[in-house]
Design a protein that fits this description.
Blueprint (H helix, E strand, L loop, with lengths): L1 H12 L13 E2 L9 E2 L2 H9 L6 H12 L5 H13 L3 E3 L9 E3 L1 H23 L5
Antiparallel strand pairs: 1-2, 3-4
Helix pairs in contact: 1-5, 2-3, 2-4
Length: 133
């Protein structure tokens, strides 16, 4: 589990494709290892969650927790959803009772694949530079 957490942390925190971290507000303390924390890039986390199929907000929050240990608050989640919808990377589905599910679009899948590929390459290179312990 620790290796999975480290890989998730490395992949999710190293978004380098035209991205500049503006502050440390999105660093959340990790319960497993409070010294490292989990970096949160809400739009990327939402896209990754929807990559496995349509979900409503609460289901995305729980899926993202399982994915990498980061829990997005509702304001953060719905802000990311609004931006992704404006960009055409996700779209709402018809409401199910009081819940509104969303799905990733074909363009969103292309963006997600490109960003994750970049992150994988960057993480591999960065991890390769670390001294063997």
């Amino acid at each position: 589990m620790r290796a999975l957490t480290q890989i998730c942390f490395a992949v999710m925190c190293l978004l380098c494709d035209n991205y500049v971290m503006r502050s440390t507000q999105n660093v959340v303390e990790s319960k497993d290892n409070p010294e490292t924390g989990h970096y949160s890039d809400p739009p990327l986390l939402v896209l990754a969650s929807l990559g496995s199929g349509p979900k409503h907000g609460h289901a995305m929050i729980e899926d993202i927790v399982r994915l990498c240990g980061t829990r997005l608050g509702p304001g953060t989640l719905y802000g990311a959803i609004a931006r992704l919808e404006q960009q055409g990377w996700i779209e709402p589905l018809p409401p199910e009772e009081r819940r509104r599910p969303y799905r990733i679009t074909a363009q969103g899948l292309r963006v997600l694949r490109a960003k994750l590929t970049t992150l994988r390459q960057f993480a591999k290179a960065g991890l390769g530079r670390l001294p063997a312990l």
